[in-house]
Amino acid sequence: MDFISILSIFVLACFVGYYVVWSVTPALHTPLMSVTNAVSSVIIVGALIASVAPLPIGADPLPKWLGLVAVGLASVNIFGGFAVTARMLAMYKKKTK
């Protein structure tokens, strides 16, 4: 695929993601966070594969470093998602007297 095709897919995905996330009602926020945690875990798997793949001789090491950065950012996203989900679920628990 050429660069224009990949860029077009990325821009369309940004628009679709924006409209999907902002049209979610507050009651569905917790399930949406769970789905984003699952997506981030898939990103971590792909980033780990990218960062441990052997490089040909003379190849640029940039993909390995970008894979490492992607692992870090996706890990922060997963931790934050679980923290928000736990906090939202705690709001619906019955209070003990």
TrEMBL record:
Task: Give the way it sits in the membrane.
Answer: Multi-pass membrane protein
Span-the-membrane segments of this chain are 6-25, 37-59, 65-90
Assigned EC number: 7.1.1.1
List the InterPro entries hit by this protein, alphabetically.
Answer: NADP_transhyd_a_C
Which chemical reaction does it catalyze?
A: NAD(+) + NADPH + H(+)(in) = NADH + NADP(+) + H(+)(out)
Is Cell inner membrane included in the keywords of this UniProt record?
A: yes
Give the superkingdom in one word: Bacteria
Q: Under which main EC class is this enzyme filed?
A: translocase
Q: Which UniProt keywords apply?
A: Cell inner membrane, Cell membrane, Membrane, NAD, NADP, Translocase, Transmembrane, Transmembrane helix
Name where it's found: Cell inner membrane
Which positions fall inside the NAD(P) transhydrogenase alpha subunit C-terminal domain? 7-94
**Main role?**
The transhydrogenation between NADH and NADP is coupled to respiration and ATP hydrolysis and functions as a proton pump across the membrane.
Protein name, UniProt field:
proton-translocating NAD(P)(+) transhydrogenase
Which species is this record about? Sphingomonas canadensis
